[in-house]
Amino acid sequence: MLSQYESYLFDLDGTVYNGEKPIDSAISFITKLNQQGIPYGFITNNSTKTPEQVADKLRKFGLYVETNQIVTSALATALYVKKKIKKARVFIVGEEGLETAFSTFVKDETQPDAVIVGLDRHITYEKMSQAARLVKEGALFIATNPDRMLPSSNGLVCGNGAIVAAISYAAQKEPVTIGKPNKEIITMALEQLQFRKDKTILVGDNYETDIRTGIDAGMSTLHVKTGVTLDCSTYENQPTFSISSLDRWQLEEV
Amino acid sequence: MLSQYESYLFDLDGTVYNGEKPIDSAISFITKLNQQGIPYGFITNNSTKTPEQVADKLRKFGLYVETNQIVTSALATALYVKKKIKKARVFIVGEEGLETAFSTFVKDETQPDAVIVGLDRHITYEKMSQAARLVKEGALFIATNPDRMLPSSNGLVCGNGAIVAAISYAAQKEPVTIGKPNKEIITMALEQLQFRKDKTILVGDNYETDIRTGIDAGMSTLHVKTGVTLDCSTYENQPTFSISSLDRWQLEEV
């Protein structure tokens, strides 16, 4: 296949690596993009890590990555809040990735404009209650992502969506969610990376998150069978392309 | 009004007391029941306290109360699980009230028959994750109550329903819920107290929890305007009686 795309937006887990193991076809392909000067970026629902930490992981796989090529759900959320509310005062539930993304925002524990919820593996009942109370009192309720469960060395553990569900149930308010399968993360990523939506293709392994989000965002999608979804054919809306691995995707000669 | 009821089942907060303040009309009325030898019991969604602790609070208001007249949602849950599963092995998320109610059950942290969730103000991410994992793997998922938020000295805090919502979202399973507005708590209370449903009247202040639950359970209901709901007239299903306070309710001469 010949590619008419000017830029590439990659999902990470299942697309570029599986857990701690790089996916060779993706590494070779992204290296080729770099060599040919074709822009690329990465999006991840993970809100606990900073873009720097994510970039470091990719560099260990031998990829050339600048920190600003990484858009985490935490960063996308900060970009979103910046656009929606001028000088927003925020209350943060989350870890280092979210704290860093919001480091320039004013923190407010009693009357914030927005309560921002990302995965917090040290969450306490008091913090959860405070978030629920502030949301109930009218603060904008924003979730970095709706992940249900995540793999860990102890087996599956709760994703951010579980914490968000607790706050949402208590406060009887629904959040605005930025991460996949919500298209806000893509909108923010394209803006941050200065990619044109009609000239960019989203590459992902998971139909329910990556491909669905790309389709919703109105962009071209490339499904790779190196991760979660091995067969997209039963879905009503098909990805633009579906291939076994990025070995099967050819770039035009430059 | 003359009463044809043989026994009385009372809600607590808003019906017998408001927070730490006894409701005089209720105290006098229950004292009269005791003097006339008319059986009465109490139900509460609170799963953190033991029946003994709840009875102590009522005794401080001058009421005569035996511990076995108190049916907490924790106790009702234990009775429910005992009926549903023989020798159930359980994983407990909760505080002293729930631990005590399940003290005779075998605990199992890896392959329980049921995961029992009551309010746990010391909940950790690890415990929440473990509960979600066990529920996802097939353990019966049982919630003591679906309370959203509760008053506290720090303002509103999360109720058990918030913790249940987190686990439910992560595991993609709905719980069986015992406490109000679910009628299981009434079914278990009537059984424990050996009250006949058709000869018992449920007394409560909150239409959405107490009265609705009594109606669902198919029993007579007496609404008192000493707590949350001051006017029931807009509801489709009316309580059997609605009075300003228990001063307005007369017992037959014995």
Task: Tell me what you see in this structure.
- Chains A, B: Belongs to the HAD-like hydrolase superfamily. NagD family.
- Two copies of one chain form a homodimer.
- Chain A is built from eight helices and 15 strands.
- By secondary structure, the first copy, chain A, is of the alpha/beta class.
- The first copy, chain A, has two domains: 135 residues, Rossmann fold (3-Layer(aba) Sandwich); 93 residues, HAD superfamily/HAD-like (Rossmann fold).
- In chain A, the strands form four sheets. Chain A has a six-stranded parallel β-sheet, sandwiched between helices. A five-stranded parallel β-sheet of chain A has the order 7-6-8-9-12. Chain A has a two-stranded antiparallel sheet with strand order 2-3.
- In chain A, helix 3 crosses helix 7 and helix 5 packs across helix 6.
- At the A-B interface, helix 5, strand 11 and helix 6 of A face helix 5, strand 11 and helix 6 of B.
